[in-house]
Amino acid sequence: MRVVFAGTPHTALPSLQAVAGSRHELVAVVTRPDAPSGRGRRLVASPVARRAEEIGVEVLTPAHPREPSFLDRLRALAPACCPVVAYGALLPAEALAVPPHGWVNLHFSLLPAWRGAAPVQRALWAGDQVTGATTFRIVPALDAGPTYGLMTEAVRPTDTAGDLLARLADGGAELLVRTLDGIEDGTLEAREQPADGVSLAPKLTVEDAHVDWAEPAAAVDRRVRACTPAPGAWTTFGGERLKIGPVTIAADPRDLGPGELEVTKSAVHVGTATAAVRLGEVRPFGKRDMPADAWARGARVAAGTRLG
Fold it and tell me: Topology of 2-107+134-145+154-185 in CATH?
């Protein structure tokens, strides 16, 4: 089956590799245009574009997939199906109509739960114990198309969004290829999503990542892990932003108010609404990541100081 793959970030690479190595004929890749990166803000191709060039596949980078030149090229390629993983642009009806078997998206949640841009982060923040990935046919409504298959994945107690997404990206690549196989063989039929159980997963903002020390320790832990690596959990110290890496909930009780710091030779604890949490790595404004105890020594943090 002729396919055109659409994707942009590192998350899409396992699926691109799996499709390229499958029995299906990968004739092109669609990805977002080069974007500014680094301090010099020079234009850099997406991870998917770079990998496609390495394997010798045509790369299409429309500013928007409604561009007539892109639609003409897509029609000329005549794909039977277009697998999609984290492409990052809204597909117009004209593009959706080109492949007979549609655009089949790999979404990192168990639909209809967590429709939207940040399903992994929202599942972690909500405290879900199990999540997964789903393949579905794209329709104009947000992540609402009929589904083909799914995989499940247990959420581990120390998972960050980056950890969990990496496992789902690897496992989901196999699911995506199996879905394409079933579509070609006629052994898979898409089923409409149930009307109940719908939840939304909007993109996390920088303000979402601001730690609220007045929350219970478990909520603080989930927020920090959900925001790692992006957008990055943070608090304030001395009027400046302090990035916070994953924390550990203290097993022994500590009499600390929300945001109050306790500094010892080897650890830094912060009070919450319940138990204290131990800080792991932090990043002071304008500096690199460092262990919290090293930061506290260098900053000469006084007992009783509060994070904001």
Answer: Rossmann fold (3.40.50)
